[in-house]
Design a protein that fits this description.
Layout (H helix, E strand, L loop, with lengths): L5 H16 L2 H7 L1 H8 L14 H21 L1 H6 L1 H21 L3 H29 L5 H26 L7 H7 L2 H13 L4 H6 L3 H12 L5 H15 L4 H4 L6 H15 L3 H14 L4 H29 L1 H27 L9 H19 L2 H12 L2 H33 L2 H20 L16
Length: about 450
């Protein structure tokens, strides 16, 4: 639970940015041109375009660009110094970024704060999923690893609730509180990283064999760990013979791991989930919800996200990874197409239609069906599968690829969504549905089942 709190950093930021960018006081302070464009009906060709601003999207996407860049450098820290220092650095830098965002007086300082948050997310996402996979026994590794995604969803929900409350603060400074409260999960991460033990895998990797065996006995709650410990030692010895993990992961024998570590995060982002998570208040506001209604709708989807992730925790080690990914993909396809059709019928090409209360409730319900499907499939498993399929000798490189591809396309979606919504209109939902169809077929054809397979034996199934 302590290690998984690293997901709070990622989740809180995902949830907080969309709510803040929908607050009039925040736009007035940093993006007055966007606020003027919203109020001037002649300034945009349709309702779909009233938030379209590259500078505004840079506020959200700059974090993910920083996380993308730092993920390559962050890969060396867990391998050389252990998993704990990487988590500590991530929490500390994220703390500094949250303070800068809370006191920012201009766009420049705001973006610098966002970049520091991105550095923190890059380090946390690099180390936490691997830490959880290495500490967990094989039979419950899926459930414990999903603790990371669970923390992400709790962070998103907490951010939605905080935004709903701070938007009501008189004086228009509530957005500062929303941004500054990111310091709380950062402090939790820093303290947790100090208190946690390192993983037996990491200790063996750095030559602390005796300490590693005692730690394995402690976390397994038994003295009888000889077989598992020998597997870890053998894997470490093989890994030490590999001087260049980045070069080795390109070898033919590791081709399945390379493909999965690249395509799984790619498809995870092109489900379109971050359209909902980043910009839920903005999206609901664009679709005709009022200020309070848009923020509350974001809270509702955040709550569904948390509850559905709990479903995944209890089912991933029982039913396996493939079943959840295939079922989740089918459910997302149906709900995305239904949302696209409904928006097309109710808003048309220029977005000039209106929603009745029944229509609004149905739209929120369909989006919740989509969020639930993602939350018990591609959300947690997009982090779990890449973190568990790589043998130790390429694990740091594989996780770096996973994080960097994830951040690259998170950046792409965050930076282009408002423009895509403006130009593609309701077709945007069909655009993402095509990718969900593609990735569901990919999983059916190529993903092996990794349930109950020890990480040191993963090569035999990949």
């Amino acid at each position: 639970m302590v290690a998984a709190m690293g997901g709070l950093l990622f989740g809180y930021d995902i949830g907080i940015s969309g709510g803040v960018t929908s607050m009039e006081s925040f736009l007035k302070k940093f993006f007055p041109s966007v606020l003027e464009k919203q109020k001037d009906e002649a300034a945009h060709e349709s309702e779909y375009c009233k938030f379209d601003s590259q500078l505004l999207t840079l506020f959200t996407s700059s974090l993910y660009f920083a996380a993308l860049v730092v993920s390559f450098f962050a890969a060396a820290v867990p391998r050389t110094f252990g998993r704990k220092p990487s988590m500590f650095i991530g929490g500390l830098v994220f703390l500094i970024g949250s303070i800068l965002n809370g006191v920012a007086m201009n766009v420049g300082l705001l973006i610098i704060g966002r970049l520091l948050l991105g550095v923190g997310v890059g380090f946390a996402n690099q180390s936490v999923p691997v830490y959880l996979s290495e500490m967990a026994p094989a039979k419950i590794r899926g459930a414990l690893n999903i603790g990371f995604q669970m923390a992400v969803t709790i962070g998103i929900l907490a951010a939605g609730l905080i935004n709903y409350g701070t938007a009501k603060i008189e004086g228009g400074w509530g957005w500062r509180l929303s941004l500054a409260l990111a310091a709380i999960p950062a402090i939790m991460m820093v303290i947790g990283a100090v208190l946690l033990p390192d993983t037996p895998n990491s200790m063996i990797e750095r030559g602390h064999t005796a300490v590693a065996k005692r730690m394995l006995q402690r976390v397994r709650d038994t003295q009888d760990v000889d077989d598992e410990f020998q597997d870890l030692v053998d894997a470490s010895e093989a890994a030490k013979k590999v001087e260049h993990p980045w070069r080795n992961i390109l070898e033919k024998r590791y081709r399945p791991q390379l493909v999965l570590c690249t395509l799984i995060p790619f498809f995870q982002q092109l489900t379109g989930i971050n359209v909902i998570m980043f910009y839920a208040p903005v999206l609901f506001k664009t679709l005709g919800f009022g200020d309070d209604a848009s923020l509350m709708s974001a809270v509702i989807t955040g709550l569904v996200n948390v509850l559905a992730t709990v479903v995944s925790i209890f089912s991933v080690d029982k039913f396996g990874r493939r079943v959840l990914l295939l079922e989740g993909g089918a459910q997302m396809i149906i709900s995305q197409v239904a949302v696209g059709i409904m928006v097309a019928l109710k808003f048309g090409v220029n977005g000039e239609g209106t929603l009745s209360k029944t229509d609004a409730n149905l739209l929120v319900f369909l989006i919740c069906v989509y969020v639930a499907a993602f939350a018990w499939s591609w959300g947690p498993l997009g982090w779990l599968v890449p973190s568990e399929i790589c043998p130790l000798e390429i694990r740091s490189a594989g996780q770096a690829i996973n994080v960097s591809v994830n951040m690259l396309f998170t950046f792409f979606i965050a930076q282009t969504f408002l423009s895509l919504l403006c130009h593609m209109k309701f077709g945007l939902f069909f655009f993402f549905a095509v990718f969900v169809i593609t990735m569901t077929v990919f999983i059916h054809l190529f993903l092996p089942e990794t349930k109950n397979v020890p990480m040191e034996e993963m090569n035999r199934v990949c």
